[in-house]
């Protein structure tokens, strides 16, 4: 039987969570299906360039503001020229363009929703258009049960048509020894290292995280908070650390394109987001056997099982977040148990192999 031809449609292939998922699907299944990409925005991004170097055809288009009919023509040309069997659309806008472009062709449409804005919302246009798009779409997947429910509540899609396929990643491989990284950051042995990896953005609620960390420090725990990432809140968070008198215990590394070495020295991974889909850094932490403290936002509680591989606390609750941090770091037995469970759950549910097999099954239907 000849291989199926799959065209992934996305915004671009810059370094990010959705882009990592697409990259993992392409690399994981390129021996089983013929893969190609279409980015509806430019520039194509670093991971797009990497895939081109690996021999994966990547097309891009500079989309105009508003609805750009030229884009439909461009996508349709690729579908016909490459005899595409499946158009895998990632996120809502690529789905709109991809579904319309397939009309009258042999291509089947798969729409994957990777996450939602906070706070979530809808409008009358989507109430009218989305059922029509759904009729043009063979399969719909969501990266968490919470995301699936949002598609039902805000996009007016049929619950029975949506399948949950959790994101999967390849196991993270640090390049440097823990001792070397701690020495470079001047972190002495024996200190508990809390850490997070995320853009510094209001949606990630790092303000609450710093306040919770200050609470933990006030209880006498000898700890460091490692914040890996950059963003609009960098300066304000640094100022907050000074006001809380914890600036000597908080390390802001700035943006690191490959942060695995920093993740590797964390004893407890923190995710304080107000909204999440399936956090890729949370999965990376689990692949390195890191227990986590997370807010009950989006798909977090589907990945972190409370009192199994970490602790889940109410959203935007500084006291509960601090209590969880202190309680986990103060009990080495629990910390080790959750760490072991984190690695096991990653291997069973959230590896790229598990994700790719599910998508391969959908492609074959």
UniProtKB/TrEMBL annotation:
Glycosyl transferase family domain segment(s): 180-325
Domain spans labelled Glycosyltransferase subfamily 4-like N-terminal: 15-170
SUPFAM superfamilies: UDP-Glycosyltransferase/glycogen phosphorylase
Pfam family, one: Glycos_transf_1
UniProt keywords, alphabetically: Glycosyltransferase, Transferase
Record-listed E.C. numbers: 2.4.-.-
InterPro entries with a match to the protein in the record: Glyco_trans_1, Glyco_trans_4-like_N, Glycosyltransferase_grp1
CDD domains listed in its UniProt record: GT4_GT28_WabH-like
GO molecular function, one term: glycosyltransferase activity
Protein name: Glycosyltransferase
Lineage: Bacteria, Pseudomonadati, Pseudomonadota, Gammaproteobacteria, Alteromonadales
